[in-house]
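Below is how a single chain appears once it has passed through the pipeline. First comes the sequence as given, then the structure the pipeline wrote out for it. We keep one example in the README because the format questions we get most often are answered faster by looking than by reading.
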Amino acid sequence: MMHSEQIKKIIAAGLPCEVLTVEGDGEHFEAVIVSAEFAGKSRVQRQQAINALLRSYFDSGTLHALSMKTITPEEWSALRG
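Resulting structure:
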């Protein structure tokens, strides 16, 4: 079983993030990831990039479910008004 902080550290180590939050109950997690690396990429490509960072944890069953919002800094600013 993983913890939110573990997932956060793995993502942060593999992707420069302006905002990164991960919350969950030990089985299901939700992340908000704001990164300039997402610019010009589709939603699917963005999520594939995050899944690639966590692939071994998904494959081993250590990480069960992660829903994510993958956002560019510009999109984040627009959402926040």
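The first strand starts at residue 19 and ends at 24.

See the next section for the split statistics.
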